[in-house]
């Protein structure tokens, strides 16, 4: 593992690895061409294109490859491997011509461009395996921590170019590391599929994101199609198609579509819920017949830097907490076992859940004894020399986050005439989905209280969805169908949502009966009466 | 007309203007889009693409246009005109988005890139009319007069780039003149179709032409497809598709395919002959069922600079000559009525024909009195102060040219089991086809002796074929079918051709009975006996 990876926890693993038949975004064919003669004097490019056409149908040849083809064909004694890629659905164009048989050296990238972190998977497109991965902070973080700051920066002179440059530098750095580790030339990478939220797609492509955050929230593009890598400045084959998974809209991006694709919920008969809580929270609900979704700025409370002692999930971050209900004694773990320096999202959720179960906060999220904060780690033990605390303000923020998720979910359920109890599966995507402790997330009402075996962590579903699309044109079509078919509910300026949000004041839920296992725990500890709801 | 045009005669007119239904290489659509709202919050690019898709089917949107679309849509209050162009047969891509309704401002270029001259026609793609034309010398002439010199130059460091730059400068100069004269911006020109020989196509596209003149004579490409103008450096819309008419091979180029297309011989039941004599001579024979063709370095004798007093068809060039058989007195005309400075191709052909009919040269092309030259204009009358003459060497060269044409034609006829008398139509393409005097060309045996109403001058058939392809996708498909269907006979190293060539020693033909009208004239003047053949 590279140095940078050791210093942080970034989600690069995925649970679900669907078996798919490989029908990748670029294909390679080994060709043994007949040598030209006076009797067969077809032009070099036409000879090559005709051979590909026999295998695949019509193919176009970019001018820059025409210039190289005569030399490669002759140097290789007319035995070459061509790479073809999509320029539009079902339309193939030549991406490369290499001497000899290189069919087994066929590489693509599945990329997850997050607001904070970027993960690049090197995929063997011959067998579908992930050969390696590299992750790093999105270089844009140094220019603006959150999305709104970046959208603002993009509107200033040179800002958009600067932001695009930053994420490209990050990607090229990660790509260079992977290529180096696996002994391949950048030119051998012939395809990219990327899962990213709408703003990240805009900044990656150099498109103005300003209208994403202004009503009526209109992106420049939801489905950008296939863009040659050279037009973006990615240091791989310049003709490699770069495909960003389509967005539903400004607030449900290609990362979510990738996640739904990876979950497979769009192909199942049972009603399923897909939740990705990050800076934004996105909720998709549905089955093989229909899909609804919504999104909102749900997550800041969980991000590093918002809570009083919040920090990113880096070494020294407290990532799990338990509180002895009898003694009030706190146990915790930190990432990497380093001295505690702050609390990351999973620690915060644990803390609130444990505070509730220990009777230190009430169901309204207030400290029962009126204190302003709870000391998780005293100054003497901490790496910072100060108490590491969770404050009433932190709890209020977290309550708002979970309230927004509850309200959004209820809005979706009402819109399709379903109830919470109709939900058969729950998929948690994204970094929080991977690292939040399930019981704690249920205890505070962030996740629904379903049978645990029906609750599935998807891991880096955005990266996994990108890998599926990279390897299968059918999966790409499914992704496009998902984006097209999700009925999106705009929560901004939605009065029904606001009412539900304001009503979502209690832990785990206003109606405790929706959370039977949490109710049982609270009753057992005498924190609520059996008849209460 | 511009200055440069006044100083020379370049073929820019065409006789045949086939009525075609307009289905052009780029299309324009005026769209009134619904404004986005919270209820209809599709992305700008997707909204636009969906509207085009309704009219045309799927369309891809290049990244550079994505960047401009949001601004144009809003500035134009969602009423815009889109231009779409082909990137591959049947595959459409956005070329431009303009505010308001500009459907009637729809411009393309039909281009004839000759070795010596370049002609650009500005075509109104809305109604098919030619709005204007501009012509000039190919800037490559300054780098190398003939094709072989240029192919050699292309092989030297930087030579190919220099040659490409030269023809692009010529084109951009002509385009700039046309755009200026017609008050339109370069960006409004959204398509180009070009007719050119294989070497000119290679140099235009920056492709190595070296193998065109080495056995087995393999071009880099015969059918380059659609190339964005910006990749070539043409100063028009950078996304405009540039389509070079397909070549049959190294020696039958897109200019000839364009000519055959313009003639329509590929759609007629009668056997027809198509001849384009220039630096190279190309002959195509056939009908709607089959096509055969061949080519050879036939024409240098007719080009300026080869004959002793040869010159290009510029003012002062003697372009027609008659010789009084009784007195031997010469009458001539010059281009522009300027004082005679030399003889161009049509003057040379006239001269040989008149010398034969006046009995000054015999049917073997030798001066009967053994002299070495014939004075057309004495020094006192000439602009150069020297005699303007046609020498025995000039005549020998011209005999070789016509011998090569005869031999090639006979080879083609034999290959398909036809005779000269089976030919029903004759099409003369190119500059020589336009300006050679028909009777003289028949008298010396360069053209067959057919009923004159069956002999058709095509004018600038290459430019006209390009115009047809620009305006009609069906015509483009016809051009591709012509290129595919011509069975090409390689004359280089062809022994049958060499034998016939060596045997083609007589004016107008070894077998005088093939030329009944010429025979009649010769008999009438007592130059041959009635029974001779």
UniProtKB/TrEMBL annotation, chains A, B:
Sequence ranges assigned to domain RACo C-terminal in this UniProt record: 270-519
Ranges for domain RACo linker region: 17-102
InterPro entries attached to this UniProt entry: ATPase_NBD, Corrinoid_activation_enz, Raco-like_middle, Raco-like_middle_sf, RACo_C, RACo_linker
Segments forming domain RACo-like middle region: 107-268
PANTHER family assigned: IRON-SULFUR CLUSTER PROTEIN (PTHR42895:SF1), IRON-SULFUR CLUSTER-BINDING PROTEIN-RELATED (PTHR42895)
Protein name in the entry: Uncharacterized 2Fe-2 and 4Fe-4S clusters-containing protein, contains DUF4445 domain
Species in which this protein is naturally found: Desulfofundulus australicus DSM 11792
């Amino acid at each position: 593992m590279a140095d940078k990876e050791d210093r942080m926890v970034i989600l690069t693993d995925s649970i679900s690895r669907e078996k798919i038949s490989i029908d990748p975004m670029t294909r390679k064919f080994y060709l043994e061409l007949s040598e030209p003669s006076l009797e067969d004097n077809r032009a070099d490019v036409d000879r090559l294109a005709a051979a590909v056409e026999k295998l695949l149908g019509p193919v176009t040849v970019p001018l820059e490859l025409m210039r190289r083809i005569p030399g490669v064909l002759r140097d290789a004694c007319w035995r070459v491997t061509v790479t073809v890629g999509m320029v539009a659905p079902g339309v193939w164009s030549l991406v490369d011509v290499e001497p000899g048989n290189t069919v087994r050296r066929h590489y693509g990238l599945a990329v997850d461009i997050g607001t904070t972190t970027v993960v690049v998977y090197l995929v063997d497109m011959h067998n579908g395996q992930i050969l390696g991965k590299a992750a790093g902070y999105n270089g844009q973080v140094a220019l603006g921590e959150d999305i709104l700051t970046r959208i603002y920066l993009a509107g200033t002179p040179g800002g958009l170019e600067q932001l695009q440059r930053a994420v490209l530098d990050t990607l090229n750095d990660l790509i260079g590391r992977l290529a180096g580790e696996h002994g391949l030339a950048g030119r051998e990478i012939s395809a990219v599929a990327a899962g990213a939220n709408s703003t990240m797609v805009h900044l990656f492509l150099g498109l103005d994101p300003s209208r994403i955050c202004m009503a009526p929230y209109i992106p420049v593009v939801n489905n950008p199609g296939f863009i040659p890598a050279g037009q973006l400045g990615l240091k791989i084959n310049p003709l490699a198609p770069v495909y960003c998974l389509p967005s539903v809209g400004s607030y449900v991006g290609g990362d979510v579509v990738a996640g739904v694709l990876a979950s497979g919920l769009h192909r199942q008969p049972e009603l399923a819920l897909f939740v990705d809580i990050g800076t934004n929270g996105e909720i998709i609900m549905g089955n093989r017949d229909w899909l609804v979704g919504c999104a909102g700025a749900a997550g800041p409370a969980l991000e590093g830097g918002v809570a009083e002692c919040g920090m990113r999930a880096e070494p020294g971050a407290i990532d799990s907490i338990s509180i002895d209900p009898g003694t009030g004694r706190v146990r915790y773990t930190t990432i990497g076992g380093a001295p505690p320096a702050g609390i990351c999202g999973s620690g915060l959720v644990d803390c609130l859940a444990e505070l509730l179960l220990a009777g230190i906060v009430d169901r309204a999220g207030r400290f029962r004894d009126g204190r302003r904060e709870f000391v998780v780690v005293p100054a003497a033990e901490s790496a910072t020399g100060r108490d590491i605390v969770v404050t009433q303000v932190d709890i209020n923020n977290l309550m708002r986050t979970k309230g927004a998720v509850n309200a959004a979910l209820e809005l979706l359920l009402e819109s399709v005439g379903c109830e919470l109890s109709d939900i058969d599966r729950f998929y948690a995507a994204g970094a929080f989905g991977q690292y939040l402790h399930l019981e704690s997330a249920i205890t505070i009402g962030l996740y629904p209280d379903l049978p645990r075996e029906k609750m599935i962590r998807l891991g880096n579903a955005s990266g996994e969805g990108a890998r599926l699309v990279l390897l299968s044109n059918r999966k790409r079509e499914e992704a496009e169908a998902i984006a097209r078919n999700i009925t999106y509910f705009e929560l901004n300026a939605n009065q029904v949502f606001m009412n539900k949000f304001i009503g979502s004041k209690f832990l785990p839920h206003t109606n405790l009966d929706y959370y039977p296992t949490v109710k049982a725990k609270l009753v057992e500890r005498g924190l609520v009466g059996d008849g209460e709801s």
